[in-house]
User: Fold this.
Amino acid sequence: MQQPIPDELFVSNISTTAPPAVQADPTSLLAPRLDGEDSSYFEWLGAGSFEVPNVAGSMHRAAGSQGLLTLIKFGTDRERLLVRIDAAREAKDLLAAGYQYGLTFLEPEGRRVTVSAGLSTPQITIWRRAAPGGHWVREGPHGGGAAAASVLEVALPLRDLALGSGVLPATLSFLVTLIGPAGGEVERHPSHRPLTVIASSRQFEATNWTA
Assistant:
């Protein structure tokens, strides 16, 4: 996990016969209960979403592998980035089998988050890279949290994603990866461009305000 992958490899420029899937943008701030379950329709109502295409491709799925991730939902509250990842198998079973989930950020550049099995709750690790092409270094304490049962739900304080300046970009952009038990990446979504979400709740509310 500490061997960096060049950021330019995270976005595919290979055309396919079908139009690439696109994200549905968030329409409201979120307030889900992080329990790892699809417990209420309203919890993630207003979230952005990306439905993982059911196609094989070497740029986003390891050759010969069967896709596991099916749906990504994402958005923010006033202080946190919130992400839910659905899969063909239950999240707790994937973690128990040695899989890890990853979020790799292109904005702010130089941030990566991994979620792995923990003693009682999933373990979140935040990594930073000081310079392009450098090694990933584990960050210190953070306020992130996660729950895994039928789905994985992750909450990351925006302050923990800021770089040295302490200032976040106006927009967060990231890719979701699934890392296999052997340590190699087996899936990466979306394959063509990162998911994006407005980081500032004030800006988000102004953008989505309707009379």
In short: The longest helix spans residues 201-207. Residues 60 and 188 are 5 Å apart (CA to CA). The first strand starts at residue 48 and ends at 51. The chain has one domain: 18-207.
